[in-house]
Amino acid sequence: MKNLEDIWAIRFKQYLRELFKYLRFVFATSYIAIIIVLGFAVSYYGKWLQVVTQDFPAEWIVSTICGALLSFSRPTTLIREPDQVYFLQLESRMGAYFRKAILWTYWSQIISVLVIYCAAIPLLLTVENPSLWKISLGFSAIIILKYVNVRIEFSNHWKYQGDHHFINRLLRIVLSIMTLKLAIEGQFLGFIIFIAILQLFEYHLRKKVMLEPIPFEYFSKIERARMTRFYRLVNYFTDVPFLRENISRRAWLGFVTRLIRYDQKNTSLYLMIRTFLRTDESIYLWARLTIVSAFVAAFVTTPFVVWLLVSALSFATIYQLKHMFISTRNIRMNTFYPVPASNHHTALQKLLRGLLVLQACIVLLSSFFQSPSFLCFILIIFVGEMTIRFTKQNKTINN
């Protein structure tokens, strides 16, 4: 039998192959949008640094953002459901396997925090003008805090299997923020004290874990949930054939379907609206993109950037929703209703136009935080209507 380090290496290669297989579709379809957004963000950030005031709480904001991200350290174990049977006799030798898992969790998650901290250094230099020692101490704090947080979260999952998880994370968020704040201020003694507190907490929890059996079933469950979140993200850019849709009744939205007049020609419209309201993937997609558009209209002060972003988000909303309904990935029972195909196409266009108008109204209301932007309303309607009319449509629609 292969040793456990070899098993981890094999699974890790399979995991990376799966990640890159889908991520290349994400970047291939959206790299232009990513470049544009990053360009505008960097330009806006540079201009903002020129006008930021000296009393801006830069240290607290950087510490809070980085400290909160450091505390989110869900482990990547690559444990599978059959392992609760096949690995049971190897429990005493699983240490080597989990050390590999902890190291991958650490390196895969710390990069984003370091990028944010490095991006925040110009802000710190503009407002606080810290010395190289203080910046280096903050960098070191992130490296140490991430490792301790990964170990604590791994032990907490092992010991309590999801219980007390909120309290544990909240406590670590507070301690991580305070530790990073002291590091950026250059208070070395306070920094060492808080690191020691976190390390003692991790040691105490690790000692408790040594007395507990390995929760293979729980680890496989959180691993499935983690990969499902990844597949749902990727599914916005390309089809993931084996991904199952989550269905929720949402009785509080039942009034929407009751507004549809009882008539045979409205059969497809009724079924599509009900499908949209009860399918998590579709309704959350629309809600997320609408919220982002509303946020842009409310708080971004450069008109051209606002027009560009709300237009892009309008296109993304309609294109992805239309793709969901015309995709042949799933066969739904309501496709067998004796309704002409033209009825399906008309109903889909009515649904998309209704969602488009609702999104445009929400964005228009959000723009009142600055000044009413009726041009945003017009752009959303225009771009969405062009998307409905001219994007590819399959011959059959699964509603």
Automatic annotation (TrEMBL):
<keyword id="KW-0472">Membrane</keyword>
<dbReference type="Pfam" id="PF05975">
    <property type="entry name" value="EcsB"/>
</dbReference>
<keyword id="KW-0812">Transmembrane</keyword>
<feature type="transmembrane region" description="Helical">
    <location>
        <begin position="286"/>
        <end position="319"/>
    </location>
</feature>
<feature type="transmembrane region" description="Helical">
    <location>
        <begin position="170"/>
        <end position="201"/>
    </location>
</feature>
<protein>
    <submittedName>
        <fullName>ABC transporter permease</fullName>
    </submittedName>
</protein>
<feature type="transmembrane region" description="Helical">
    <location>
        <begin position="355"/>
        <end position="383"/>
    </location>
</feature>
<dbReference type="InterPro" id="IPR010288">
    <property type="entry name" value="EcsB_ABC"/>
</dbReference>
<feature type="transmembrane region" description="Helical">
    <location>
        <begin position="21"/>
        <end position="45"/>
    </location>
</feature>
<feature type="transmembrane region" description="Helical">
    <location>
        <begin position="101"/>
        <end position="125"/>
    </location>
</feature>
<feature type="transmembrane region" description="Helical">
    <location>
        <begin position="131"/>
        <end position="149"/>
    </location>
</feature>
<keyword id="KW-1133">Transmembrane helix</keyword>
